[in-house]
Automatic annotation (TrEMBL):
Chain segments carrying region Disordered: 462-505
Residue ranges of the TM segments: 12-36, 48-68, 80-99, 105-126, 138-160, 166-189, 201-221, 227-247, 268-289, 295-318, 330-348, 360-385, 397-417, 437-456
MF terms (GO), sorted A to Z: transmembrane transporter activity
Upper classification of the organism: Bacteria, Bacillati, Actinomycetota, Actinomycetes, Kitasatosporales
UniProt cross-references to SUPFAM superfamilies, sorted A to Z: MFS general substrate transporter
Keywords noted in UniProt: Antibiotic resistance, Cell membrane, Membrane, Transmembrane, Transmembrane helix, Transport
Subcellular location: Cell membrane
Classification via Pfam families: MFS_1
Record-level GO BP terms: response to antibiotic
UniProt organism field: Streptomyces prasinopilosus
Descriptive protein name: Drug resistance transporter, EmrB/QacA subfamily
Bias kind Pro residues: ranges: 495-505
Amino acid sequence: MPDVRLASPQGTWILLTTVLGSSMVLLDSTVVNVALPRIGRDLDADLAALQWTVNAYMVTLAGLILLGGALGDRFGRRKVFVVGVLWFATASLVCGVAPNAGVLIAARALQGIGGALLTPGSLALIQASFHPDDRGRAVGLWSGFGGIGAAVGPFLGGWLVDGPGWRWVFLINVPPAVLCALIALRHVPESDSGERAPGRFDVLGAVLGALALALVTYALIEAGDGSPVVAVAGVAGLVAAVAFVLVEQRRPHPMMPLDIFASRQFTAVNGVTLCVYAAFGGFFFLAALQLQVAVGWSALAAGTALLPTTALMLLLSARSGELADRIGPRVPLTVGPLLCAAGMLLMTRVGPGASYLTDALPALLVLGLGMVTLVAPLTATVLAAVDTARAGLASGVNNAAARAAGLVAVAALPLLVGMGPEAYREPAAFDEAFGRAMVLCAAVLVAGSVIAFATVRRPAQGCRHPECRTHGSVAVPPLEPETEKGAGGGVSRETPPPAPERPED
């Protein structure tokens, strides 16, 4: 039984190291987009290379995050967490000294592996260490402080790009990573061997999942070339995806048990997740470019301009979750995507000569309110749709789905709206394509709203709600812990199991 109290010195150290670890991953998901135009100019990279700078990280992170949680359960959560932190720091160092785009992209893929090891581990350490009476508050603080890290990311990224240079966007990860590893080794207890999960690892499933994402992403990014190699890669990616499903059906210990999708509510909410996070991923990739390339703002101004969305999430997400508890998730999950769609349509006014106060700020406020409305209820509904013992798995699957949707959007959106390899060097052409992209993102969000309205129902009384009530990251939903052995983290065993779903009142 974990017995560390939050108010104790050891509890403070555990919270500090887990916040430092998760904040690095969240920070990297927000700061890099702001640096992309400068990276492209300094490394003479085309738009495809900039897409890969984002997606190489997301492919390995999304494809391996469930395996990362399982490794922690088997070998010890602290050990895998420290390995992930040091791996992430080493890859960040290589990113910071990369002489060309190819090295940078390869290092970003390695960064994603480190993120997949430490992200589920940071939350699992809280679950495995703190006394049950303090666990909920510890998770809330972890989520809130991590959100602050994500919030300052665009501002910090812009300041670094305009100041010491874009390489420091990556190099800045190294000192906190070293500090994080030292604190973990000295102050964080290792999980007992008796608590570790049995069974074999689904390495084949993890490899097939990551390979499918990588090949499909490659085919989408390089589709403009019309090369037979691109077509072969696309087909091979689809074959790998089918093979992944077949392997997961037959594995005794699958990375992603497919029977979790027997819950229609769980499947439907993941459909909503795919729509909204695809739109978010495409928006934040292109918006940072639009504000610098077409509008002409500095990296610092562009990063600061995007702060309202994250600030609103930090301030209001917990209240949004409470409202959804009272009225049910159907209305928030229907209205939230529509508000986000309206915000993205308003972003079509943000072009050359745009004013921040009259053009950009209204659009970002509407977008942020939409995110506030839908993100917390989305997480809660995912967890309420499955048995309590599988809440950690459900959260991990939903998290991986959100990341996969974002990386596919970053790969596909420039292709769909006609952005050429040199589009980010041509302000007028980029502005036109950005307007088309915002309309397409809005359409995807409307589709998510329709799915929610048609399929989401109010969970029965007694269903559990997420301990992560403060949402600060607009890139992905937070991971939710799980006490039962397996998915890397923990829900309280005192939580009653959910009753069957009932129709919306």
